[in-house]
Amino acid sequence: MNKVKKLVSILASLTVLMTCTQFVLPASASVLTDRVLSKNGGFEDNIDGWTPGGATCTWQEGGADGSKGCVKVDVINGFNDISQKVNLEIGKKYYITFKAKLTEQNNTGKSAPVTLLFSYDNKKTEYPIQTKYDLNHETWTKAEVIYSPKNEPDNYGGSAKMYIRVGPQPQNEYSFDYYLDDFYCVELNTRENLLVNNDFEYGTVGWNPGGCIVTSVDGGANGTEKAAKVTVDSGKVNNNVLFTQSVSLEHGRYYELSFWAKLEQGETNKGVVLMNHEATGKTENILSNISLGTEWKKIKLYYKYDNTSDTGTHRMLFRPSDDSAVTNYFFDEAAIRPVSDDEVILNSDFDYNTSMWNAQNAALAVSDDTYADSGQSLKVEAQAGGSPAQNVSLKAGESYTVSFWAKSDAALSLIPKVGETALCEAVEIGTNWNRHTFLYTPEEDVTDQPFTFEAADGNAHTYYLDDVEFGKSKPKAENISVTGNPLVGETISVDYTFDNAGLSDEGESRYRIRMADSIFYEELESGTTQSGKPVTLALTEQFENKRLVIDITPVDSNGVVGKMQTIALPRIKRAYEANISFDGTIEPNGAIKPLATIVNNTSEDKTITVVMAVYDANGTMRGVVADKQDAGQFGGKAEFVFQTPVTLPEDVTGYTAKIMIWEAPFGKTGITNMVSLLDSISYQNE
């Protein structure tokens, strides 16, 4: 199932209780599953987790991009080393980024390049970044790289000291004092997608443009934050523009290729997808005549790599036009996904086309008639004995779960079959969408036999299928529910239903809670859990303005591990956000009134009262103004505009004015947990 459909499926199964109708947000699937290896990369409060080496390292206020803090690295004897241990595996890819600037103006006449090093324990040292970025003292410089250790286990890989050095090479010739912030080492998830930074949440690092300029822009496809904009160089045309990254493909394996694209302007029906084999220079045209306009569209196809003579790397190319036209375009959510051996069929969701399915005495077409706005479905116009079909291979004694959504123009009975063998009793298909799931265990091996849907009465019928899944049975975490408000001071809990098609009970399933300041999710806590025993988390003040994701990985009593499901929460807010101030000052014969805007982030409509009281030196109230406004749930705003101020006397010595906020009409008890409960000013006696 592709990323878009996965998100839709999570949304469809998510039972949100109480106030959480806005809980699950669209988010990049790859970013959510990337793993941060480094610790305390933001240096928000201290430099815990980092080790100075030959340098004096101190925490400083004022980090990059207005953040709270950073670290200052002072050189000692030509070294300027602050480090952290990480474990890197050969064959995996890592995104490393940091921001740095000099502590003072560089008057040495020498450049100040920054070098990133990985010094492996009892092995060699690698330099992913060297002499590429020249630092200055006025602006923060962002450095980033996608890196994989060399495939030499005796020399590279394993535990490594990760650190940076600022100054020209060779080592110790000259070094500079500098500030460091936002240092992250992120293990990229390439198990389900060979492409890294496929959603451009990390900018355009990892991608290689040719004949074009590529920038990361806001407003990605499918609700994600970022996308790539490809602008064709002057004098170039689309058929000699490249924007790619290299991957290795395995002979004989199917791959699902997908991406989202749209044009900057106009429309075309001449888009193409190509596969370039870098070792031989051969380029295959694997999809043609793609229609695109200025709205995001998903493209998906399947590709099997069969050339045994080409063992090098490969590049998937997309061009919005195969002729001499010059077309700028946007590109996002690109994926080259190896099809798992556990997946029996391909193109289960029909989101782009009917590829991989054969029509046996039937007409097949994609349709917008779907369950829960899930993309597209398969419309089957079957003649007598007709069916969609896809060849499958099964292992004797292995349990397979078959699941599909279906509806029909008129009620009918369908019999799912492999070859001539019925997989279950006839399934009753109605005129509304319903999901059907059953378990099948073949007694003998099956090799390349058609998987079909046979009408029990043998007549012609028109019906629709969607999310036709056929795969080895594994435990699932379904019906995920989140209870509670994503607000400071509240407690949330997450529960789910364990399902393993009746094969086994639940064992020690796993949960993990991760937290992010921006796009980097660092592990907060983890442990084991079971369905019916909710995972709870109290949202203390440390979570304010942070984002959380909660991972559930089902495990059955036999130790079989299912697929991790991830729930993404919005940024944690306070129940109320208040912006209050005074119009006027306390001065003889003056006038003063409050200004206030209150945002209600709770799940209930609220009546908010703002009160400003003026007190004399003895604490006696000498004037008051109050007003109430309604603020709707989930971000409703109450704006207070007071027409009449409090008039002050000639002698205001010791006077104080206070603004107070009630979560109720004036006079009711209970001052609330708003962001600012009280603000005051007093007379400045000169």
What does this protein look like?
This is Carbohydrate binding domain-containing protein. The protein has five domains: 3-30 and 475-568, Immunoglobulins (Immunoglobulin-like, Sandwich), CATH 2.60.40; 35-187, Galactose-binding domain-like (Jelly Rolls, Sandwich); 208-338, Jelly Rolls (Sandwich), CATH 2.60.120.260; 360-466, Galactose-binding domain-like (Jelly Rolls); 576-682, Immunoglobulins (Immunoglobulin-like, Sandwich). It has two helices and 47 strands. The longest helix has 11 residues, at 3-13. It is globular. The protein starts with a helix and ends with a strand.
Please tell me how large the radius of gyration is: 31 Å
CATH architecture classification of the largest domain: Sandwich
| DSSP summary: helix tally | 2
Gross morphology is globular
Number of strands: 47
Which ranges are low-confidence, i.e. pLDDT below 50, for 5 or more consecutive residues? 1-23, 667-679
N- to C-terminal distance:
73 Å
Q: SS-based structural class?
A: mainly beta
Please bin the fraction of helical residues: under 10%
CATH homolog superfamily of the largest domain:
Galactose-binding domain-like
Q: How would a crystallographer describe the biggest sheet?
A: 9 strands, antiparallel
* The level-1 CATH class of the largest domain: Mainly Beta
Beta-strand residue fraction: over 45%
Mean pLDDT over all positions: 87
Protein name: Carbohydrate binding domain-containing protein
GO molecular function: hydrolase activity, acting on glycosyl bonds
Keywords: Hydrolase, Signal
Signal peptide: 1-29
